Amino acid sequence: MTAALALNDTLPGIASIGRADTQPIAVPSLARLAGAGKIYGSGETAVTALADATLDIKPGEVTLIEGPSGSGKTTLISILGLLLKPTSGEVWIEGRNVSSLTERDLPALRARNFGFVFQGFNLFPALTALDNVAIAIEMKNPRAKDPRGEARRLLETVGMAERSHHLPADLSGGQKQRVAIARALGGSPPIIVGDEPTAALDTKTALSVMELLRELASSHGRAVVVVTHDPRLERFADRVVRVEDGRISAID
Amino acid sequence: MWTLARKLLLHDRLRFAVAIAGVSVSVMLVLVQVGLYFGFMNTASSIIDASKADLWVGKAGSESFEFASPFDERAFYKVASVPGVERTERVLMNFAQFKLADGGDLGVQVVGIETTAGHAPLLAPWNVIAGDANKLSEAGAIVVDKSEYPKLKIDRVGHTTEVTGVRAHVVALTQGIRSFTTSPIVFTDMRSARSFMPGLGDSAVTYVLVKVKAGESVEAVKQRINALPHLAAYTTSEMSKRTRTYWSSRTGVGAGFFTTAVLGVIVGFVVVGQILYSSTLQYIREYGTLKAMGARNSMVVRVILSQAMISAAIGFVVGCVLAVGMQAAMAKANLSVALFPGLYAATLVVTIAMCSFAALLSIVKVLRLDPASVFKG
What we know:
heterodimer; A: four-stranded antiparallel sheet; disordered N terminus; B: alpha+beta; six-stranded mixed sheet; four-stranded mixed sheet
């Protein structure tokens, strides 16, 4: 049982912030894993990638997920991001258990709730920064009224307005990641999930990207969940979730 | 979607050029091969199609228009007396030897027609570009096609020669009247035709052309003529179709042209399929990212289909231009490529279908793409 669940173990989707001098105040969780697990294969060949993971994702918080390679970090964020179905436990999004939803139902849920940032940026090399962001907005919501206008605003938010017409090949690693963050923000999802978003960047750039993610959480109320191996990023985090051997071993 | 599709295609211009080349060659092959087929078929039935007759009457059992057996002229009068027949004209067709200027001989297809003064004949040379076809009634007068000048070794109206040893002179020149048998067509009147082909006798007829009285049923008159012994009547469109079918099936020309056209489609399919698939593989992580962020499969599939449609549209236009160029080049070699709106429309449908099917492998790839794969390094 994790600390987060211990604070509020009867109301799925509702987390609490405990303060020493007052009663706990209920804060709605944006997402919640409740005893989530993932087992690949069956019988003697079964491999447990994640077991009994319980975690609340709250607005305005930066959560770092750390652990050695193969510990289950990626499985954890894949289940949290509705990219992978757990074999046990529950996933709560928008206040409801979505564990049993099929891939047919999940894209819309992902589009409303998640933006993803990757180590390799995953930007279309043929598209400008503006087009990369706009196309993601359009893909998420084909009825979006002004995807290019929204893309411009988001690029401005991440400090890339002046480079909006550059192709990824003409941008530095840090600039590409800022564009990727702008793309993740398309459609205003409340949760940004980053898979080692600073791993391919030099220290200075990595820290500036984390500052940006921190800012998005603090000023814009987004929940930011970042998988990382880099302990220098801990200073940007509200919580550090440590994963070892497929289990959440600690939440600091 | 169109913007993304277009930019993805144009990002690698060499690959895009190869895709367009594949579609274009495919479109050109389909148009030219099918156009050649229709060109040949038009040639095969051109004399029939140009006639103003309602019915063509020939000897029963004749399979080929060109090689039809002649019959005695008495049948002509029997046909003329069938109720419902307004007018009849005789046609005598056979092969004869045309004396060339260098002393050699060339086999020609003589078409003897009636040149009765007072009304337009049911069959007469058309597309006359020089001379006077009305002079066909002169003894030994002939009309030949300009495209056959090199073969016949003549260069002007007024040229004199011999057909089967009988003096003949060119009174008019046509354009675009050619025979499927490759033997030049020589129009002349019945009297001259009989002199050019003495072996057939003085009363031979190959076809009787029938004009049905206004208000009479062509089908009913046809049945009445068919009741006559040893004769078979066909409407002009039936006769045309019969002739086309004969040449198409007997020579295998149809199968040959269509096989090449199908091969063209297969080439286009393989080239476009390979190009789209390699493009999809190149951007697979980006597609996965979009799916992870909530893009529905249908949206990603639309991007790939849009690429296929852009390739189809541009390839079709380029292919049409190439086909028109080929048509012009082949015309110089006296080969007729019949390009017409229906063929363009059918080829466009084939091109769209070809590119859509070529995109299937890519579509299956993105449909099966697990969005969680974006986290797998």
